[in-house]
Amino acid sequence: MNAEAVREPRSLKNGNCWVCGGRRLTLRKPANYPRPLHSSAFTITDTHYGVTAAIYECADCGFLQCADLDDVTHFYEELEDEAYEAGRAQRRLQLRKVLERVRRYQPDGRLLDIGAASGILIAEAQHMGYQAEGLEPSRWLQRKAAERSVPVHEGTFPNPSGGPFDVVTLVDVIEHITEPLRLLRAVRLVLAPHGVLVVVTPDVHSLAARVLGWHWWHFRVAHVGYFDRSTLELAARRSGFIPVDFHRPGWFFSGDYLWDRAWKLLRLSGPRAPAVLKSLTIPLKLRDSLLAIFKPTGPVE
Q: Is the pLDDT of residue 2 over 60?
């Protein structure tokens, strides 16, 4: 790994809520991540559940955020994740389901996928008739997309590629961003007046999150903001969007992936997964994430 992949985040001592701007933040969970941080802690398939930066709760809107962290984009630039690519077939199925939902509101046109990884959603969108492209900060994931001739550009958003776009997707992205309103407002500027914004993010008030507490699988170093329906809608409205649909997406996993994750969740070292599990694809409706579709309207606050 490049030496630039190892950095300690600079403390901002940021007393403002990233969603509502409130200043009454209360520490809910102390930091327990290893120092110095390394890009390997930010892999998409990371299994260190419950290992996070310090999490603060806003007394005004309830949003949970890692207020001590600076922008963490540089960790993603050096990220490599072989396990993510190994699950490409299952991810293709779940992202097609997302796009089938989107097609109800915008059936065609230009699509921009922000945080596109190796381009799985883009490839599916192209099969469905969209003119799709994406942005991805990880050089390794961008190369994987290029190997398949999928148009993923290396970089972050905003980007000079410009718009307008008929669809902008943020699938499991906004929880990684220390300035979510800045991101959403930038999307608003490149989205066509008739276009739709699609956000998929973990729901911190889902049943799974409440039952598992701080051991929930989405409490990870890479996740710095934790939304529920209320705070996601508030962030969108403050950025010039109104919701038109909320949905609980389903997911698909290989049998061996689920086997491994189950032992990790139990915090035990389990036996190797039986070989037969690798060939199985298992659909799950965990109901612990939100799929929200927004349309632009009105001024940005």
A: no
Read off the pLDDT of residues 85-118 as tens digits, 9 standing for 90 and up. 999 999 999 999 999 999 999 999 999 999 999 9
Q: Report whether 26 contacts 59 (CB < 8 A).
A: yes
Q: pTM (2 decimals)?
A: 0.91
| Range 3-250+285-296: architecture per CATH | 3-Layer(aba) Sandwich (3.40)
